[in-house]
Amino acid sequence: MISFDGRALGTGSTPGRAFDLDPRCIEGSDPVSGAYANVCALADADAAIPFDQTEVQQARRDALEWWIPMLGDTLVCITMLALDESRCGGAITVTRAPVDFGSDPFARLFPATLVRTDIFSEVPPPAGPVIERYAGVAWPGGAFR
Amino acid sequence: MDLQAGARFPDLDLPDHTGRARRLSELAAGDPVILLFSRGWFCPKEQRHLREMCALQDEFEVAYARMVVVSVDPPGEQSALRAGLGARFTFLSDAERRWLPQLGLLEESDTLHQPYRPTAFSLLPDLEIHRRYDGFWYWGRPTAEDVRQDMRAMSRRVRDDFERE
Q1: What predicted TM-score, i.e. pTM, was given to this entire model?
Q2: A85: buried, middle or exposed (CB in 10 Å: 19+, 13-18, 0-12)?
Q3: A85 in a domain, yes or no?
Q4: B contact set with A (CB within 8 A)
Q5: Range(s) of the domain holding residue A53
Q6: Is the pLDDT of residue A135 over 80?
Q7: Which member of A50, B41, B66, B112 has the greatest number of CB atoms within 10 A?
Q8: What is the pLDDT of residues B101-141, one digit of tens each?
Q9: With contact defined as beta carbons under 8 Å apart, do A49 and A56 qualify?
Q10: Which domains are assigned to chain B?
């Protein structure tokens, strides 16, 4: 779980709206210090869209096609923010250095806030798919094993 | 190296189109894979075939399957080709030709580029080879329908709930 109060991110019992994320992003042993997190989400409890909405999948397609390649080595991790099994609360893209976050395809879902953070670890970028796995883990986490 | 049906394909470790180190097993991530060895961006046959594979990517992305292309093009050239095709799947670069001789897939008729011979493999999630396609002749390459049939057969093998009584 991760929390966002509109300005800052936290883990554990920190104040703010709680989201599920790809757990690999915060379970790594070597978090990146001073990373840039582009948080496309709102602290407002009503800000949610169904994962089934086509714009969610299209944002992921754009992420696979050009957003992740554009970020290259500066990408630390990327994760959707899930409210439950059916509702999307947004997404976070984390980088080592500031980039053109104005191109973030997930900012089409929710407005973005840039946050400096020390909580995220590097996760290999996804190679697909564009939908959640059966395990219900926030994209791109989870797999059939 | 045995690259026939039933053998285990080696877990390639190569940079992707962004230069990031990748492993084939990591890209498979528990899903069946169509692995395409390509001559490179310069070959019109490759461009045509990859466009056909791109037409399948919408299906792959909702059907828990993966597509991976390997060539000797450097990552920057792969990234340009990928963008031109509108591809969203991963390209792996063997520009140093580290795996090419081990796999025995050198395109011997092209002494200029020394590329991979067009060859495709449908792989189970553990990289067991389900089917091999030799694409030196264009008609030997997998069509979209071949790929669909392979994905159906492999999914039937690995998804316990693929067919219900």
Answers
A1: 0.88
A2: exposed
A3: yes
A4: 17-20, 22, 26-27, 29-31, 60-68, 79, 82-83, 86-90, 125, 158-159
A5: 2-117
A6: no
A7: B66
A8: 999 999 998 888 899 999 999 999 999 999 999 999 999 99
A9: yes
A10: 13-158 (3.40.30.10)
